[in-house]
Write a structure and sequence with these properties.
Largest sheet: 6 strands, parallel
Bound molecules: adenosine-5'-triphosphate
Number of domains: 1
CATH class: Alpha Beta
Helix content: 25-40%
Radius of gyration: 17 Å
CATH topology: Rossmann fold
CATH architecture: 3-Layer(aba) Sandwich
Strand order of the largest sheet: 3-2-1-4-5-6
Shape: globular
Number of strands: 6
């Protein structure tokens, strides 16, 4: 049977409650059968304190997705030639899973710039797009795209990985921004904190 699979891409550096709430909400309030958190590869130019290694980001993301029914962590994009644009990733997924239907999940900030994405017209033609609200961005979907693009009315939680990393670098408390087990992982592996 054809599954409807949502793709939620990001660096998840680290995953935080904003991501977790979004994933949980979308899984329970949309047409999706599954949601995959698709980890983007480490940019070699951004290594070091700010960008945790792929395996750590993968493990932290798994700590969250294992608690959410229907939600999984995917390392698929890490195996693709780089750079992998979203259209390349979606095409590779469709080749590997020809019987499934893919839904790209993006924020209203990205939707506002979507016509600058590589092959955005092909994404809209061959896949579905789900847009969720971000503060400061109105979501406008032209009538002609109404059958391909849906809006998910997820709650806005303004936490960012950048904010979490900055707080950790200054030894500030992030217990309510990052799930407990993710925070334990960060501390155990000395991620994002100065030596
Ligand atoms: P950074 O601050 O490092 O840029 P981020 O917090 O935006 O990171 P990403 O890993 O880039 O996190 O995000 C992955 C996806 O999650 C992106 O599509 C991003 O728009 C979305 N996202 C990030 N923060 C939130 C949030 N608080 N609520 C909902 N979606 C979010």
């Amino acid at each position: 049977m054809k599954r409807k699979i949502g793709i939620f891409g990001g660096s998840f550096n680290p995953i935080h409650v904003g991501h977790a709430i979004m994933a949980s909400y979308v899984m329970q309030h949309s047409v999706l059968d599954q949601l995959w958190l698709m980890l983007s590869p480490q940019n070699p130019l951004k290594q070091g304190l700010t960008m945790a290694p792929d395996h750590d980001r993968l493990r932290m993301t798994e700590l969250v997705t294992r608690r959410l029914d229907g939600v999984e962590t995917s390392a698929f994009e890490l195996t693709l030639p780089r750079p992998s644009y979203t259209i390349d990733t979606l095409r590779a997924l469709q080749r590997k899973f020809p019987d499934d239907e893919f839904y790209l999940l993006i924020g209203a900030d990205n939707w506002a710039l979507f016509d600058r994405w590589r092959a955005y017209d092909e994404i809209l033609r061959d896949f579905h797009v789900m847009v969720y609200p971000r503060r400061g961005f109105e979501i406008v979907v032209p009538d002609a795209l109404a059958s391909r693009v849906m809006v998910v009315d997820a709650p806005l939680v303004e936490v960012s990985s950048t904010g979490v990393r900055e707080a950790l670098a200054q030894w500030r408390d992030v217990s309510f921004y990052v799930p407990d087990d993710v925070l334990r992982y960060i501390k155990k592996n000395n991620l994002y904190t100065p030596e």
